């Protein structure tokens, strides 16, 4: 039986990694893939290991999570190669016939392991990507992120503020401009379809429906997802109308984090409709929202002016956000747990 080895950080996994593994498997009967991680890295090794299990379902490819805190470069330790030889031997008991890499370290590693190195796309001509490029600017290299894990890299941008400040109008325009998804305010759809007036019992299904909409829309968004309000808005209105608290909602309203928030000011005319009744409380509601943002420790970018000015301000700001690196908090267990509907 021919046994091959691929090792890497997969930090994060990208289509170049998948190409390497696919080509390596063609040349051996069993392929061992070591997913190596360090505690200090932004994307936890456990999460990368879970991703890889979903991306590589082949039973003849053995995935192993390596937690050893090894030196990363030969100059980091005089026994660098021996340390890595010991790690590889302890995680892969079978003799290794071939080591497959797209890296320059392939030859010296093969020499240490006593096997042959087979380079695959060493110059990255077939798939010109690296994990560091994705970490630094995921949206620029969106096409190289495997589809099943893209939702973790989506820039989530919330438009927030009191009623009748143009959130829905601006959210639609931004989604259209940046050719991506947006999710409407779930409460409006819910209440428009409800045959009876709103009451306190509506707030939990509204909150869960809005969060589920976010989760689903993120799966096929084009790098950015625009949200017409979020659960913090639901919390504000629950307090305003009923002076009440729902623990499930409060935990997520205050705990969920987003890449950015656009706070829309009240400097445009208030327009009445059947779901708006706080036109004489605009200043008070604006202050309620500002207090909620502070309570949730959310930074925000203030959007003012007429509709054209607001659109320009928002587009300019989102163009800056598109260049931001990965958001460390997106990969934490806490945020992942908060985005589960329980």
UniProtKB/TrEMBL annotation:
SUPFAM superfamilies: Nucleotidylyl transferase, P-loop containing nucleoside triphosphate hydrolases. Residues 156-310 form the NadR/Ttd14 AAA domain. This is ATPase. One of its GO terms (molecular function) is catalytic activity. Coiled coil: none annotated. Residues 6-56 form the Cytidyltransferase-like domain. It holds the Pfam family CTP_transf_like. It comes from Leptospira jelokensis.
